[in-house]
């Protein structure tokens, strides 16, 4: 039975929650309104909140200058491709760690996580050299590969925590019925873990979509994703804030929509395992 | 197992990757003249059959990417956009191919390039980058406010006159600041302005033995003049103002004078953006009678990295983009006022250009008076007018810029800022091995 919470406390928390949410949302909101201002108004001091005259010129200018569709296509291929490739590797890996652990499983998990602790620029030169020699610089498949490798630890960790929640007895029952390993994973484990896999997939698509360091460093035009697209609208001389905002808005729109439609899955995925 | 599979996968993917032969990859920054070139470059492709692949990046990202690529011999780029700061340093490292074919081409006429700019892009007499557009800095001022203050701006004023005029033009009640200057910290922000200004006061970054000079009376006078001028006649919150912020202030009629890049002249006189377009006059950057003026020199230029596989085609493109014919092409398509300025003598002799750009003569005088090979009153071991052309300068210049910006914001005194600048620069230069 739920605990009784006094009305004042409830109101207080609601206001607090709204305040924090607004604070977190404010940069996106600011980008949104700036995208519809003129360049002069975008930099005006004191700043205006809502545009005095709403204009769509910035979006036109952005489209004139750059190829949004090409960059968006690259973003989709890289983020979805790297996530699917990652899942292909991570599902068997997480299975073995969750259901057939060895003495070293915990260490391996920690080691994988530790690769995320080093700043990316620390391995920039080795990766760049490998990419140069394998002719992967400025290719979409090279980018997909690096994105898979970067996010693999997170994918495995997320799936591992999910799989741990699944009673091992069910898998054993399948084994008793004569299911082979592959069938066990494919027909028993995966269907039960679909919510977990789905939220892992969504989160990793978002992570890969927003990744900027590698996508900008390893590409030069052909394989550029939307993060490279945004970067091209900053200018050393002359006004650019409104156009930069318009470009940013175009770049985050697809992922914002994806997040909107899948927020239930995402929240469930991120809080899974919190209630044991 | 996983690693093996991945490697095999990578190899497979690598084998399917293809590289097309005659496509040039050009890395550039986002500014008006470059974007215009991108638009007109179809003509080059039509004439030569060479395809172009453009990479537009933010200035600092461009520097980082291009440096990574050059240092690892990556070969991602065939042409890169660099400034007068990078050109001599990178040339010295052997990272750039000299533009020998162009220099020998009579049609290209390398002698037509403005001598100051050419000097800044050369090493040991060889041209390593071709200027796409060049700029100096000068004074833009409001003719109406100057008249109201009862003063007349000379073509080449002194700092004393600028101080007097700025204080006379200031009208706090009507939100008019006598002078707007850069205050935002950064080697290419406030330090570009202050280093150039210090040259006119006889100051220098280093003596002939690379000893920092912030403890000299010349630097003290530079910083004191700057700070008191900004306190008496500068805008509020100036320590966060860079080029764009001051441009906006000036266009909105809130500055009596503004000393900044000559390229701003076309922005402040453009009636579409500027409320004061018909009331702007130009003058050379101020001096103190010591023989150097407080103006800088910069040129966004095109260079070929040593790692490029398409050097020949790349030089062909650079020849096209920085030629006299290109200037004529832009003039035909968009008018003489939109031609990239500051690279060729012939442009400034062109009566059509002189008519379309009233600031042309003053721009040329400013570029001519900046000498990157002898920037200061006393001799120095470095080249560069508003920077010191050594790799360490970006870091050191930004450190000092933060101290001076803090002094402008009133967080520390001028003496403290100079003392700390001296200490920090001495430490960094010792570490880098310039000072034993």
From TrEMBL, chain A:
Q: Where is the ABC transmembrane type-1 domain?
A: 72-262
Per the record, GO CC terms?
plasma membrane
Q: Which residues form a coiled coil?
A: none
User: Where in or outside the cell is it found?
Assistant: Cell membrane
Transferase listed as a keyword: no
What's this protein's family per the entry?
Belongs to the binding-protein-dependent transport system permease family.
What name does this protein carry?
Carbohydrate ABC transporter permease
Q: What is the lineage of its organism?
A: Bacteria, Pseudomonadati, Pseudomonadota, Alphaproteobacteria, Hyphomicrobiales
Automatic annotation (TrEMBL), chain B:
Similarity annotation? Belongs to the bacterial solute-binding protein 1 family.
- CDD domains (UniProt xref): PBP2_TMBP_like
What's a GO cellular component annotated to this UniProt protein? periplasmic space
Subcellular location per UniProt equals: Periplasm
Q: Which domain of life is it from?
A: Bacteria
Please identify the protein, giving its name as recorded. Sugar ABC transporter substrate-binding protein
- Signal peptide position in this chain? 1-21
The record's keywords, sorted A to Z, are: Periplasm, Signal
Q: What Pfam families does the annotation carry?
A: SBP_bac_1 (PF01547)
């Amino acid at each position: 039975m739920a605990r009784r919470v006094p009305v004042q406390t409830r109101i207080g928390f609601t206001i607090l929650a709204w305040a924090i949410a607004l604070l977190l949302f404010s940069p996106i909101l600011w980008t949104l309104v700036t995208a519809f201002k003129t360049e002069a108004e975008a930099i005006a001091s004191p700043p205006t909140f809502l545009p005095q005259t709403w204009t769509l010129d910035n979006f036109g200018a952005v489209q004139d200058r750059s190829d949004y569709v090409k960059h968006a296509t690259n973003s989709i291929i890289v983020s979805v491709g790297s996530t699917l490739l990652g899942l292909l590797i991570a599902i068997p890996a997480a299975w073995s760690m969750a259901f057939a652990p060895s003495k070293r499983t915990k260490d391996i998990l920690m080691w994988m996580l530790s690769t995320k602790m080093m700043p990316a620029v620390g391995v920039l030169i080795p990766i760049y050299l490998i990419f140069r020699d394998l002719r992967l610089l400025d290719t979409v498949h090279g980018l997909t590969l690096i994105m898979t490798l970067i996010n693999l630890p997170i994918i495995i960790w997320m799936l591992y925590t999910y799989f741990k929640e699944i009673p091992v007895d069910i898998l054993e029952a399948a084994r008793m019925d004569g299911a082979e390993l592959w069938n066990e994973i494919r027909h028993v484990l995966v269907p039960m873990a679909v919510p977990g896999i789905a939220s892992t997939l969504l989160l990793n698509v978002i992570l890969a979509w927003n990744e900027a360091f590698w996508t900008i460093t390893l590409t030069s035009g052909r394989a550029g994703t939307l993060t490279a697209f945004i970067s091209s609208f900053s200018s050393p001389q002359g006004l650019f804030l409104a156009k930069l905002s318009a470009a940013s808005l175009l770049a985050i729109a697809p992922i914002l929509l994806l997040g909107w439609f899948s927020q239930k899955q995402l929240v469930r995925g991120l809080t899974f395992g919190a209630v044991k | 197992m996983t690693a093996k599979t991945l490697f095999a996968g990578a190899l497979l993917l690598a084998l399917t990757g293809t590289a097309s032969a005659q496509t040039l990859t050009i890395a550039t920054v986002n500014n008006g003249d470059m974007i215009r070139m991108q638009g007109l470059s179809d003509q080059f492709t039509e004439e030569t059959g060479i395809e172009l692949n453009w990479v537009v990046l933010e200035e600092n990202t461009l520097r980082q990417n291009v440096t990574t690529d050059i240092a690892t011999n990556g070969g991602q780029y065939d042409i890169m956009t660099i400034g007068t700061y990078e050109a001599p340093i990178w040339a010295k490292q052997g990272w750039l191919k000299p533009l020998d074919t162009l220099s020998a081409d009579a049609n290209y006429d390398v002698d037509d390039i403005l001598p100051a700019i050419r000097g800044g892009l050369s090493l040991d007499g060889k041209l390593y980058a071709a200027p796409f557009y060049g700029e100096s800095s000068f004074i833009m001022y409001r003719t109406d406010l100057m008249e109201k203050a009862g003063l007349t701006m000379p073509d080449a004023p002194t700092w004393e006159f600028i101080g007097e005029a700025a204080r006379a033009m200031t009208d706090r009640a009507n939100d008019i600041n006598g002078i707007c200057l850069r205050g935002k910290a950064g080697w290419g922000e406030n330090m570009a302005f202050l280093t150039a200004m210090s040259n006119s006061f006889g100051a220098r970054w280093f003596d002939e033995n690379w000893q920092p000079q912030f403890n000299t009376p010349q630097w003290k006078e530079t910083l004191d003049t700057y700070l008191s001028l900004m306190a008496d006649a500068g805008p509020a919150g100036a320590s966060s103002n860079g080029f764009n912020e001051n441009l906006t202030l000036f266009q909105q009629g809130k500055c009596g004078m503004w000393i900044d890049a000559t390229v701003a002249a076309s922005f402040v006189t453009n009636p579409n953006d500027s409320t004061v377009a018909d009331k702007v006059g130009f003058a050379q950057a101020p001096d103190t009678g010591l023989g150097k003026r407080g103006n800088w020199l910069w040129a966004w230029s095109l260079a070929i990295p040593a790692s490029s596989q398409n050097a020949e085609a790349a030089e062909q493109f650079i020849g096209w983009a920085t030629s006299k014919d290109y200037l004529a092409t832009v003039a035909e398509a968009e008018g003489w006022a939109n031609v990239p300025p500051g690279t060729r003598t012939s442009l400034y002799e062109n009566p059509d250009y002189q008519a379309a750009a009233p600031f042309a003569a003053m721009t040329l005088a400013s570029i001519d008076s900046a000498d990157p090979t002898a920037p200061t009153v006393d001799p120095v071991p470095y080249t560069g007018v508003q920077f010191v052309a050594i790799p360490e300068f970006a870091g050191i210049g930004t450190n000092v810029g933060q101290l001076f910006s803090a002094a402008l914001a009133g967080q520390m005194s001028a003496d403290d800022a100079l003392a700390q600048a001296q200490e920090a620069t001495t430490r960094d230069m010792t570490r880098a091995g310039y000072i034993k």
